[in-house]
User: Fold CRISPR-associated endoribonuclease Cas2 from Sulfobacillus benefaciens.
Amino acid sequence: MFVITVYDAGVKRDPKILKICRKYLNWIQNSVFEGELTEGKLKKMQRELGTVINSKEDYIVIYVFASQRYSSRITMGKPKVSEGFIL
Assistant:
C-alpha cells in the first residue's frame, strides 16, 4: 500500500517522530513522508509513533492508498531532497 504521513509535534518530540518516519518512509519535506509499506510495517510504525507522541499536543495524519497507481502527485518549486528511487 502507498502511504503519506504528515505530522505536527512539539519541539522535544519532533526529532523522535522524524526518526521513526524516516525508518519506514521517504522524507519529502518538513514533517511529510511517503512510500510503499506492507500492512505489518504500517502497524509497526503506528505503534512506534504511539509510544512517542503526546496525544493532547501532537497530531499525525496517515493517508493510505491501495496503491500508488491510484494516486497522483503535483509538485511545484524545488524539493528539499532529490527525488528518485533508492536501490
